[in-house]
Amino acid sequence: MRECWATSAIGWLEQKREWVGLQTIAFIKSTVFRNGRMSVATRCYIYSLPPDAKRILYAARNHWSIENNLHWQLDTNFDDDKSTVRKVNGPVNMSVVKCFGLSILYKTPINRGLQRKRNMLAATQSGALKTLIS
Known about the structure:
134 residues, 3 strands
């Protein structure tokens, strides 16, 4: 269950000048029941549009859906969590390459899951593509 409270009454917020266009602050409380246990999390958001709890709930849920899906896809297809690239711009560069590879897999017109598409492309294309997507 998710609940949202949003307000534009932010005159008391000293830091409001730090965020150009800030109109709203919102709190989202998420209550989850798993394995007989209850977990409650409250998140705070700042928003540049008028307070609209439904819209804020929708935006927050979509944001995390995209984030979580992308991370899961990168980890399952490229073992992203096991990456040992740590120096200077290496992590950012590898992230760009992996996201590019993921977009190639999404656009490939093979009617299979991403893992199978990756394996099929690696087996049938040049060594450059195999290196790119592995």
